[in-house]
Specification:
The protein is of the alpha+beta class. It has 23 helices and 49 strands. Strands 3, 4, 5, 6 and 9 form a five-stranded antiparallel β-sheet that branches. A five-stranded mixed β-sheet has the order 26-25-29-27-28. The chain has a five-stranded mixed β-sheet with strand order 31-30-34-32-33, sandwiched between helices. The relative contact order is 0.06. It folds into eight domains: 132 residues, Sandwich (Apoptosis, Tumor Necrosis Factor Receptor Associated Protein 2, Chain A); 115 residues, Alpha-Beta Complex (Cathepsin B, Chain A), CATH 3.90.70; 125 residues, Alpha-Beta Complex (Cathepsin B, Chain A), CATH 3.90.70; 113 residues, Roll (Ubiquitin-like (UB roll)); 102 residues, Phosphatidylinositol 3-kinase Catalytic Subunit, Chain A, domain 1 (Ubiquitin-like (UB roll), Roll); 78 residues, Phosphatidylinositol 3-kinase Catalytic Subunit, Chain A, domain 1 (Ubiquitin-like (UB roll), Roll), CATH 3.10.20; 93 residues, Ubiquitin-like (UB roll), CATH 3.10.20.90; 101 residues, Roll (Ubiquitin-like (UB roll)). It is globular.
Length: 1044
């Protein structure tokens, strides 16, 4: 909730009018002025109208129902079927289909009828869509007060049955009979009211229909996505996140930078935004993204992390300023004048909803006082025990108030947490002033509902969604009406699209930074786009440009881009004086879009008009400077030159453009076409003789003439452009991140493995020898076998098996050099310390030909052993959450597999388990509650002594688990044999028998009693799982943390 009169937190993303000149207002679309004219069907087009009850949602293409009509003219002469213009429902086009139909009666007399159908998505080529709908098909009467003739349908529309209706809706005779009242002036009007369910197999353009985009769910990150959307729409926080300094941060570990990236993409992207880089910055592994968490818990952790990251920056204190409130806890004695007070801060308020009707009842319950009397009197120090009342009262509320409705509570009857799904009312606006402590300071306590995060499911798991009111003004109806008005204008533009053409305008600034052939990259160019009527004259277009650019017409000259026969795209002259009255579509030679270069008089030149240009005696030349040291091209502008001018006349001009002294020696080249750049030697000759087929738009590339150029990799611009022709774009994806979009690099096809590794390592900020690369599998976007660092081929060979449009190579970052790794075996396992509190995944790199002993030696280098431990490690196996002894130290590593359901765990051996006597045995121990198949927590081995009193064994186990005594007292102990628990009698006389833990003989299937198939008993600890219950992939459970 946001303060009602707090503009910084109320004026969120406005769905209605948009301020295009203010970035902070989170604009997503431009405001289109309304000329006030009514939108009417074009001449000659059938009329598509909506009845009165649908006018409010006339242009909402995502609506679930609509009513639309179609008037058929000259019915008596109709021979073929007709289709109405589309009416969009659920973003699908629906049309009325009408036709004359004929059939034979029993008397074999032909009978004509009116065929009336509803068609859905008829022009789609997709075969995967479907949409269920009900509809009423009506033939409207022309007589006042007469009801229409109607019939109803219900149908699942899909590609093979995309129309449904009646072949014989009404006899042709009745349709044409004026007495029936359905025809007038040889025209009938058909109407359909359709109600459609949400379609399947149809893409949804969220940005188009709502102005916003969503966040991708990584697996179980719905709680995080819902909260991120809410925080994104909190203006003050979003602005503060943008202002956090991140220039020197590690891009893979900076939470601030990753959050900035997510917020920026939510603002500007057209597609759903990914959060993998954000969770990676949290220090999370892939498994963490598949664990469900409580959204309130994540909110506290995230705000705490942001608050710490903002310290020492220009936005320090933003989090408490926005979300921190204060309350006073008090205990007031009844019979004496003594009160104890303590001021506490809060970031959210947890409200009890059980038995409460609405939010005010919950607040009344929160501030209600508790009477301390009888045995529960308050110790007032020197005043002794006193009757008192205990309670809280709020001293201030924050600008943004988080309320947590406590739907999960502990149920003592079932001894577990349950969810209350009772109805609970909250309102769009609330006033909490009655719960504030009376103070001289004015504290605002009026709030507007900003967002509601909803959890569906139970305490074992579920799904989060969020409903957000971005503007917080409650004016949803006005905003929707404004959206529909804008959409109506867009619909009009779409209907009239054939009357318009697109003109893509480039200015000279657009050529700066271009490193390829010609003057710009047609696929990456940022055009200034104008929509112009095709029949508008060139003069009218110049007037539009003049008004938009604030230049006079004399200061503007148009140079259309023309595709030459030699595969280049260069500006050419348009004869403005003779072509001023020609339609612009003729000037563009019917091309659409029309790409043009607009030349403008330099603002500091003082010219009221551009210099004159004679198409017969002048030529337009463009200049590029090549820097061999940096291997870069710099654009140096354009110039009009007489065709009879000598080449050497260009040298002073080029030196001036490059900032060189006037007499600097330079080398000139002509850029003729891709991979063809020729040196100009005859400087004393005229341009028309030296340049090949001299034309407007020719490009001169020049560079400084220096001896040291030869030391560079690409010493001349000819070498540069030749290398350019071999360049390709390659996407590098992190193999360890599922569906990683990767990053794009432009590299030469001829580079070697070593050069590629060096380029990628510079991009990632790591050592090239700490990278391992993988080719794509044959025509699949999946990593294949790893590349050897001694690979002697080229990049072209590496991407030969990639899909034609996407060149992709996978990589992973290593902790050891790749040349060492090729003699190693990668081994993933779990490390658990002696206290059974710390658990983490580790990756070890033992020698390929090594044994388990070598693996344990590698682990010792990576893990931290306990001070009082044995210093010796062992490896265990976990299968289906059950612990088993691992392979012996002399077992070759090549026989171990880390794939499948088996997990290897390495741990330090406790001192008392190093040397076992004959009457001692190691027994697997696991936690469960009621059902032995539902184990949880961390399983472990424990030493059992034969004949040891049970109570003594319990005492040792209590020390090993290191938990509170009250919790341990609730444990029940069972020997689990053949998946059946046999509970141990907790008596002083009971002693442990190691025979109870010997492998169990299967009486039903005797053949399974050999070797590993024997069922081994284990010690079960039966107690309630106090950890939050969530879906798990394996036995690991983690509290939510942000590590970086």
């Amino acid at each position: 909730m946001n303060h009602v009169n707090d503009p910084d937190n109320i004026q969120q993303l406005n769905l209605a009018t948009i301020q295009v000149d203010e970035i902070e207002e989170m604009d997503t679309q431009e405001e289109i002025p309304n000329d006030g004219q009514e939108i009417r069907p074009l001449n000659g087009d059938p009329e598509l109208t909506c009845v009165t009850q649908d006018q409010d949602m006339e242009e909402d293409e995502a609506r679930s129902e609509a009513t639309f009509r179609y008037t058929v003219e000259s019915v008596s002469k109709m021979k073929d079927s007709q289709l109405s213009p589309p009416c969009f429902v659920r973003n699908l086009p629906w049309k009325i289909m009408v036709m004359p139909r004929s059939s034979q009666t029993q008397e074999r007399q032909p009978q004509r009828s009116l065929g009336f159908f509803l068609q859905c998505n008829g022009e789609s080529e997709s075969s995967s869509w479907s949409c269920y709908a009900t509809a009423e098909l009506r033939l409207l009467s022309c007589k006042d007060g007469q009801d229409p003739f109607s019939r109803k349908i219900q149908h699942l529309f899909y590609s093979k049955e995309n129309d449904w209706g009646f072949s014989h809706f009404m006899t042709w005779q009745d349709v044409l009979d004026p007495e029936k009242g359905y025809i007038k002036d040889d025209a009938i009007t058909l109407e359909v009211h359709v109600v459609a369910d949400a379609p399947h197999g149809v893409s949804w353009d969220s940005k188009k229909h709502t102005g916003y985009v969503g966040l991708k769910n990584q697996g179980a990150t719905c709680y995080m996505n819902s909260l991120l959307q809410t925080l994104y729409f909190t203006n003050q926080l979003r602005k503060a996140v943008y202002k956090m300094p991140t220039e020197s941060d590690d891009s893979s570990k900076s939470v601030a930078l990753a959050l900035q990236r997510v917020f920026h993409e939510l603002q500007f992207c057209d597609k759903p935004v990914g959060t993998k880089k954000l969770t990676k910055s949290f220090g999370w592994e892939t498994l963490d993204s598949f664990m469900q968490h409580d959204v309130q818990e994540f909110l506290r952790v995230l705000l705490d992390k942001l608050e710490s990251k903002m310290k020492g920056t220009c936005v320090e204190g933003t989090v408490p300023k926005l979300f921190e409130g204060k309350m006073v806890s008090f205990i007031k004695c009844k019979n004496i004048d003594y009160t104890s007070k303590r001021v506490e801060t809060f970031y959210d308020i947890q409200l009890n909803i059980k038995g409460k009707k609405n939010i005010y009842e919950s607040f009344n319950d929160y501030v209600s006082t508790e009477i301390l009397d009888g045995d529960n009197k308050y110790d007032a120090g020197e005043h002794g025990l006193q009757e008192a009342e205990k309670g809280v009262i709020f001293s201030s509320f924050p600008p943004v108030l988080h309320l947590h409705l406590m739907r999960f509570q502990y149920d003592p009857i079932t001894d577990c947490s349950v969810k209350f799904n009772d109805r609970f009312e909250f309102y769009e606006k609330i006033s909490l002033g009655q719960y504030l402590k009376s103070s001289k300071e004015l504290t605002n306590a009026d709030y507007t509902l900003h967002a509601v995060l909803v959890h569906s499911g139970d305490n074992h798991g579920g799904h989060y969604v969020v409903f957000i009111n971005p503007s917080g003004d409650g004016k949803l109806v006005e905003r929707l009406q404004e959206e529909k008005r804008l959409e109506q204008i867009k619909r009009k533009e779409r209907n009239e699209a054939y009357l318009f053409m697109t003109v893509n305008v480039l200015f000279e600034d657009s050529f700066n930074g271009h490193q390829g052939n010609d003057l710009y990259d047609q696929e990456k160019a940022l055009y200034r786009v104008f929509r112009v009527r095709k029949q508008a004259s060139l003069l009218e277009f110049l007037e539009i440009l003049s008004e938009s650019l604030k230049y006079s017409i004399g200061q503007i000259r148009i140079w259309p881009f023309s595709l030459r026969s030699n595969q280049t795209c260069r500006p050419t002259l348009i004869e403005s004086e003779t072509d001023l009255q020609k339609p612009i579509t003729d000037c563009a030679e019917s091309g659409n879009p029309w790409n043009i270069f607009v030349e403008l008089a330099a603002p500091d030149s003082g010219l009221t008009a551009l210099p004159a240009f004679d198409k017969d005696t002048d030529v337009l030349l463009f200049f590029k400077l090549y820097d061999p040291k940096k291997r870069k091209i710099h654009y140096c502008g354009h110039h009009y030159m007489p065709v009879t001018a000598k080449v050497q006349d260009l040298i002073p001009i080029l030196n001036e453009r490059a900032g060189y002294p006037e007499n600097t020696d330079i080398i000139l080249y002509e850029e003729i076409k891709p991979n063809m750049v020729e040196k100009i030697d005859n400087l004393a000759e005229p341009l028309e003789k030296v340049l090949e087929e001299l034309m407007d738009g020719d490009i001169i590339v020049f560079q400084r003439e220096e001896k040291e150029n030869d030391i560079y990799e690409l010493p001349t611009c000819r070498d540069y452009f030749r290398d350019l022709s071999f360049r390709m774009e390659v996407t590098f994806c992190d193999k360890t991140v599922p569906n990683d979009p990767g990053f794009l690099m432009e590299l030469s096809q001829k580079i070697t493995y070593e050069q590629m590794a060096k380029a990628v390592s510079q991009r990632l900020g790591t050592d090239p020898y700490l990278l391992q690369f993988f080719k794509c599998q044959n025509y699949k976007d999946l990593p294949g076998n790893p590349l050897k660092c001694t690979f002697d081929g080229t990049l072209k060979e590496l991407v030969a098996n990639c899909k034609p449009k996407t060149k992709k190579i996978f990589y992973q970052q290593l902790s050891i050099h790749v040349n060492e790794l090729e003699n190693k075996k990668q081994f993933k396992c779990i490390w658990v310390n002696l206290t059974l509190k710390e658990e983490k995944e580790i990756i070890l790199y033992p020698n390929k030909n090594g044994t388990v002993l070598n693996l344990l030696e590698e682990a010792k280098k990576l893990v931290e052993l306990s001070e009082n431990g044995s210093g010796k490690l062992r490896i265990l196996e976990i299968v289906s959450n059950k612990l088993q002894p691992g392979p012996k130290e002399d077992v070759p590593l090549e026989s171990l597999s880390t794939n499948g359901s088996k997990i290897y765990r390495i741990e330090e051996i406790p001192k008392d388990e190093l040397n076992l006597s004959e009457d001692e045995i190691l027994v697997p121990v696991a936690h469960f509650h009621k059902d032995v198949f539902s184990t949880f927590g961390i399983p472990f081995f424990f030493k059992i002594k034969h004949g040891e009193p049970f109570l003594q064994m319990k005492e040792r186990l209590f020390k090993r688990l290191d938990i509170q005594e009250k919790e341990f007292e609730k444990f029940k102990f069972a020997i689990v044999t053949a998946n059946k628990p046999h509970f141990i009698n907790d008596s002083p006389d009971y002693c442990m028998d190691i025979g109870d833990f010997r492998p169990h003989q299967n009486q039903i299937f005797p053949l399974s009693n050999s070797g590993a198939n024997q069922q081994k008993p284990w010690l079960g600890l039966d107690h309630i799982n106090k950890a939050p219950k969530r879906n798990r992939i394996n036995y690991l459970e983690k509290a939510i943390k942000i590590y970086n």
